[in-house]
Specification:
- The protein is built from five helices and 15 strands.
- By secondary structure, it is of the alpha+beta class.
- Among the domains are: about 90 residues; about 210 residues, Jelly Rolls (Sandwich).
- The strands form two sheets. Strands 1, 3, 8, 9, 10, 12, 13 and 15 form an eight-stranded antiparallel sheet that branches. Strands 7-6-5-4-11-2-14 form a seven-stranded antiparallel sheet, with no helix packed on it.
- It is elongated, with a radius of gyration of 55 Å.
Length: about 475
């Protein structure tokens, strides 16, 4: 409708211009009486041309406006379609960006966990290197002390050989004196026989001296002569042989005692056997911790079948995959395990006696009061400390597994951290057991009350884990 109105107005404007032109012509005729006719006509033509140009300009503007109005709907439709396409592209870009951001967040969390584990491994390697460095320093000190002792013994041996040479000269002189005494005695005896006197037999000093000399000579025959002294290498070998049979002195450390076994270990319940390092060998316990823990006691019979300790227990939550871990791996010092409460804080415990392939009873106890912890092996307290996670609470609602270390809740296991061996009689308390309770538990006299988790809470056995029922642990394969 707007375009139709503009078209009508354009025609009206043309008619008006013609009418005005006619009117101007009439006025020009009437005015000819006052001015020259041609001059007025020229001016009127110029005015008409200007008016015509203005009219044409207006008509072109009207035509352009008409064309714009005619194509306006199509342009609006195109703009609407372009707007919809742009909105769709923006939505797709936002979805892709959100997916990339979620992937980056997941990758960042994994990188943080791997970084923490790498830090723990580096700390363990640093500790191992420091320990080995101290051991090398001690070995060097011992070797230096041995060299000094050998040099001192060599000097003593030289002095002893010189003394033996002097003693040999003195014995030869004594032999000459005894021979002179024996000659005097024989002459005295012959004189007495010539006089016809008899005397009681007296001790033969010469014979006793000869016998003593003969004993000394026999002892000297077994020793090397001065001109055939032992070389330093032979002397070192003899000193080492003497040290093998030397009794240990009071300042030497006695060798560690071998564990003879706790005797008959019976009525401990089922035995769980982890045969290899497969990441599928895992046991899930449910329910986990239902309440926050400010104290903890973990006790179990354990038999290790490898040269290092694997992961006995792992408790992970959504916030932290190492809330509670008894974690070992093949890169740690043999016989050591990391007792972790709230990663990255941990204590390294030595369980070296467990590597003899026999059954051992262990109890690891912790309380948030002053952060105290204890390690019991076969009823004996072998390690203790304080200020470990003082005032901390282990949160509930996590995933609790045996035999593997979790990198996420219930998954991402590592074969180098897997446990290989057997477990029996496992139990967890939400309090700190006293030494008498630990001793009674290890000897089978009494099971402490109030256990919150045992092997009866096993809900899933994965991989090649086997379950055996043995009257006594010594009978299990």
């Amino acid at each position: 409708m707007g375009c139709l109105r503009k078209k009508t107005l354009s025609f009206l404007f043309i008619f008006v211009s013609i009418y005005v032109h006619g009117t101007l012509l009439q006025e020009a005729v009437s005015a000819g009486q006052r001015k020259p006719f041609f001059e007025r006509l020229r001016r009127l033509e110029e005015q008409f041309r200007r008016f015509q140009q203005v009219t044409l300009t207006h008509l072109q503007d009207i035509a352009n406006n008409y064309n714009v109005c005619y194509n306006m709907d199509a342009r609006f439709q195109n703009l609407a379609e372009e707007n919809q396409a742009t909105a769709l592209a923006v939505n797709q870009s936002q979805a892709a960006i959100q997916g990339d951001v979620a992937h980056l967040k997941t990758w960042f969390r994994k990188s943080q966990r791997r970084s923490r584990k790498m830090d723990i491994r580096l700390q363990a390697l640093d500790l191992s290197l420091n320990t080995k460095s101290r051991q090398w320093v001690e070995v060097e000190k011992e070797q230096k002390a041995q060299k000094e002792a050998i040099a001192s013994l060599a000097l003593s041996m030289t002095a002893l050989q010189d003394a033996l040479t002097s003693l040999t000269q003195q014995v030869h002189n004594q032999d000459a004196r005894l021979a002179a005494l024996e000659g005097r005695k024989q002459r005295a005896s012959s004189s007495t026989a010539a006089l016809g006197l008899t005397t009681a037999p007296a001790p033969n000093l010469a014979q006793r001296g000869s016998a003593s000399l003969q004993l000394w000579r026999d002892s000297q025959a077994s020793q090397p002569s001065p001109q055939h002294r032992s070389s330093p290498q032979d002397f070192t070998v003899r000193v080492q042989e003497m040290q093998k049979f030397q009794a240990p002195s009071s300042h030497q450390v006695a060798p560690p005692r071998t564990h003879q076994g706790p005797g008959n270990i019976c009525s401990t319940g089922p035995v769980l056997i982890f045969p290899n390092t497969s990441t599928e060998n895992v046991i899930f316990l449910s329910p986990g911790f239902l309440m926050p823990l400010r104290a903890l006691s973990f006790c179990s019979w354990v038999r290790v079948a490898t040269s290092h300790l694997g992961t006995l227990l792992s408790y992970a939550t959504k916030d932290n995959d190492n809330k509670l871990v008894l974690h070992g791996r093949d890169s740690l010092v043999p016989g050591s395990i990391h007792f972790v409460i709230g990663d990255p804080v941990f204590r390294e415990l030595s369980l070296q006696p467990l590597l003899d392939g026999q059954w051992h009873h262990i109890c690891i106890i912790w309380t948030s009061m002053e952060g105290k912890y204890w390690l019991h092996i076969d009823r004996r307290t072998v390690a203790t400390g304080s200020h470990f996670r003082e005032g901390y609470e282990i949160p509930p609602g996590g995933s609790l597994v045996l035999g593997q270390e979790q990198d996420t809740m219930g998954g991402e296991f590592d074969s180098s951290e897997a446990f290989v061996g057997s477990i029996s009689g496992l139990a967890i308390w939400d309090r700190a057991l006293v030494p008498r309770e630990v001793a009674n538990l290890a000897t089978g006299k009494e099971f402490p009350t109030g256990a919150i988790l045992t092997l009866t809470n096993v809900t899933s056995v994965g991989g090649f884990v086997q379950t055996a029922k043995c009257t006594c642990l010594e009978q299990c394969p």
